[in-house]
Design brief:
Length: about 425
């Protein structure tokens, strides 16, 4: 069975022309793509594209013979410009130095790892282009390794083994800081630097570690002893506080018990006082009632006595007074007469004056002396002992005391009646002598 070509109504010449035009378009497009690919340059994010061959003016005013692309795209002039690419991916670099003398003359072996890359900083990218263009990453890593080894020896020479071994982070930071100037000149960037190991063939660091371990053990033992001592002190302090708290609690309990006893005693005393007050009030009421009863009885007895005794006695007293006034009437009259007589005598006595009194005393001198003698003789002396020196003066004094006593009595009598007895007697004796 044969196949048949459908008739489309196009003649062969037209079909050939259409096919030739299509082929021409494809060729032109391919040619344009080829030409554009030769002119267009695309830069990846992890690389730098250097288009060299023409002069380019930089932002600082300087002129260079290349143009740098970092990401994006650009155009080049074929035959006049050349394109070179620099890889910006990390380059691992192993750094190891042996017999690097530290401060103090101790040789050390230091092993470190680092990652370097071509710098993308516009300030240093020209240095990288001038020094590392067309170099492979391995070659760039070798240059970075040699640079780091030299910087590493310089930094180790400035530090002691203890500083290198103990603070590796500080050591790495110092190394990166010292290597920055060299890497800036190379147009490279030190991205990561880590110190892996530090050792020495003489065993200095090991001995240092032993001494440190010994110090650590000693410090641990001291810390343990201090901790034990602190625990013991804390236990003693806690025990003391517990004992103090227990004693304080016991004292508070005892105080509360004493307060309870005092309150109970006070309550009992108050109760006793209330009972006593009640008893006293009862006794007082009973006594008051008894007193009232006795008062009523006394009033009754008083009334009875007035009726039975007082009124009859008053009647008898009135009768007796009347009888007495009747009997005493003569006596009263006689007394009145005697009083008048005494008043007349007293008047005459006053009229007589001092001489009259003296005369009266002289007339009654004998009775007065006899009365004085009688008064003195009434004083009885049971025993009288006289101690005499042999001259009889003491006995004479004792005998002479009797007239002196009589004279003293007369003097007192004269003082009583207003007469100087001694003067009167001396005057009377003078008259008798004359």
């Amino acid at each position: 069975m044969g196949s048949e070509i459908p008739d489309l109504g196009v003649d062969p010449e037209t079909a050939v022309m259409i096919l030739s035009g299509a082929i021409g378009v494809v060729v032109v497009v391919a040619l344009l793509v080829f030409i554009i690919s030769r002119f267009l340059v695309i830069c990846k994010p992890n690389e730098i594209v250097v288009i060299s061959g023409r002069k380019h003016k930089l932002s600082d005013g300087s002129t260079v013979g290349f143009k740098v692309l970092h990401g994006g795209r650009g155009f080049r002039v074929p035959l006049l410009e050349e394109v070179n690419r620099m890889d910006m991916r990390l380059i691992p670099v192993q750094v190891e130095v042996q017999n690097a003398y530290s401060q103090g003359g101790i040789p050390l072996t230091v092993h470190a790892i680092s990652n370097v890359k071509v710098s993308s900083d516009t300030r240093y990218v020209s240095n990288a282009i001038e020094r590392s263009l067309s170099m492979t990453p391995r070659q760039i890593g070798a240059v970075a390794q040699q640079t780091l080894e030299g910087v590493l020896r310089e930094v180790v020479a400035e530090l002691t083994p203890e500083e290198v071994n103990e603070d590796r982070l500080k050591f790495a930071q110092t190394l990166m800081r010292n290597a920055k100037d060299d890497f800036d000149k190379l147009g490279l960037e030190l991205d990561v630097l880590k110190i892996q190991s530090v050792s020495d063939e003489q065993g200095y660091l090991n001995n240092l570690g032993r001494a440190r371990i010994a110090r650590m053990i000693r410090d641990a033992q001291n810390a343990e002893n201090e901790a034990k001592q602190a625990v013991a002190e804390a236990q003693a302090s806690a025990r003391q506080r517990a004992e103090g708290a227990q004693k304080q609690a016991e004292a508070q309990v005892l105080t509360k018990r004493n307060e309870l006893r005092a309150n109970l005693a006070k309550l009992e005393a108050d109760a006793k006082a209330v009972e006593n007050e009640a008893a006293v009030a009862a006794e007082t009421a009973r006594a008051e009632a008894e007193q009232e009863l006795q008062r009523v009885r006394a009033e009754l007895e008083k009334l009875r006595l007035e009726v039975d005794v007082y009124l009859p006695a008053e009647a008898e007293r009135f009768a007796a007074e009347a009888q007495a006034r009747g009997r005493a009437a003569p006596t009263v009259e006689s007394g009145k007469a005697a009083a008048q007589a005494l008043q007349l005598v007293s008047q005459e006595w006053q009229n007589a004056g001092a001489d009259g009194r003296d005369l009266y005393v002289l007339q009654h001198l004998k009775p007065l002396v006899e009365a004085a003698v009688t008064r003195v003789t009434r004083a009885k002396i049971n025993d009288l002992a006289v101690v005499d020196g042999g001259d009889g003066a003491s006995f004479t004094g004792a005998v002479a005391s009797f007239p002196a006593a009589v004279s003293q009595v007369l003097k007192e009598t004269g003082d009583a009646i207003g007469v100087d007895m001694n003067h009167l007697l001396r005057g009377n004796a003078a008259k008798g002598g004359r």
